């Protein structure tokens, strides 16, 4: 029989490497620390032992579990079972199921690795950590937004500094590990130090120790918005492709509104966590502008991004679970923004009624839309197809992975000149350009540009494109009939249909198209 592997309370499905694996869960895992997504079929982000208890395969005394890897699901439901509340998650790349493992394999595992099945006594083997590099497995650029208001007072402010220091130590800060900075929220926000200032834990601890208490109202909303907009610039040390995180510490309640700041942070691709300490008492609730302030400010209201501590005393046990959250980079759902997580296909009319000069204006419009997005191998992608009666792929989503190359490819598109078969062109693009990326992580958009009546039906092909998960914007110029444009566009049609009499009018549409793509992207994530 297969020997099982002893795992910890925190091992997730995605940490296991085999398609089917026998594992041994330890006893007495704290139920409240489990993250479980789904019911029966669990997202691979879920804790394996948590899923096993949730589904009734084992109890909290631990035991043998067989884990089977499964494909990803469109959605995972939230179900309360056996003392664990699982959470909702939309679209995840892989899943797993759990069944009872065999006793024999379990006994062998216990003989082999008692030390990993339960907390060991005595010395653990030292991890060979390159001190300078830090913890390479933790990918994060973190701003700690600390509470410096009169609510917290000098004494608790110092306890808060101690807690932030402990979190910083456990994160494993280093050149290739997490980087941190601190912003103090009071009447006005103050950036105390940036990501780029220190890359060693010792220096960070010293800087935290030196922080002075400012006092004033707790304008946390103002500070959160300021941090989201100003803190994570490349010149201040933010790194490309690394999740941006703001951990907001709140003693009591904020003096201002957090909702707008939460929206700004999400637009900037920042993951907001809120650590609330000493919740407002019943009498104090009357002073709170919005009782649901935590839910409105966090990245996603799914339980993962909010964290509670009863007081600032005895907080050591809260350090590790918080660090584990901050280091789960695949959980940072807000790192995906409309700018870095979309595929945009342009379908460009090359018919003879347009002419060379106007065709250049069309290409300029395409460039200006493409320019707004963060194009890279892990980011957004752009493709272009030109059509008359025939279709020609100018470049596909995988041809160019930098913005410079995409823009230069757009400039080099040669005008075809010919008839207009828009329906066929949509069918061709759906199959040949979007087909290869349809299971990828990005959301798909098609922008159809035309200046006239199509010789074929556009309604059927556009409906098929939308059914394949592509959001369609139609942009008409000159003689393009409004009915055709509306029939091609996604719902709500008014906001996905654009028209201008003159080709020079295309330029004014650029911001609205970009905004439209971002709105659709955010709506699809809620």
Can you describe what's shown?
The protein is α/β, with parallel strands linked by helices and 526 residues long. It has three domains: 3-98, Ferric Hydroxamate Uptake Protein, Chain A, domain 1; 139-329, von Willebrand factor, type A domain (Rossmann fold), CATH 3.40.50.410; 340-521, Rossmann fold (3-Layer(aba) Sandwich), CATH 3.40.50.410. The protein is 32% helix and 23% strand. The protein has 17 helices and 20 strands. The strands form four sheets. The protein has a six-stranded mixed sheet. Strands 11-10-9-12-13-14 form a six-stranded mixed sheet, sandwiched between helices. A hairpin with a 4-residue loop joins strand 10 and strand 11. The model is unreliable at 106-129 (pLDDT under 50). It comes from Vidua chalybeata (Village indigobird). Plays a role in the control of cell shape and motility in the trabecular meshwork. One of its GO terms (biological process) is sensory perception of sound.
Summarize the entry for a quick read.
The longest helix is centred in the C-terminal third of the chain and has 20 residues, at 506-525. Helix content is 32%, strand content 23%. It is of the alpha/beta class.
Strand content: 15-25%
Radius of gyration over C-alpha positions, nearest whole angstrom: 27 Å
Query: What's the N-to-C terminus distance?
Result: 45 Å
Number of domains: 3
Number of strands: 20
Tally of alpha and pi helices = 17
Average pLDDT rating: 88
CATH topology of the largest domain: Rossmann fold
Query: What is the assigned CATH homologous superfamily of the largest domain?
Result: von Willebrand factor, type A domain
Describe the global form. globular
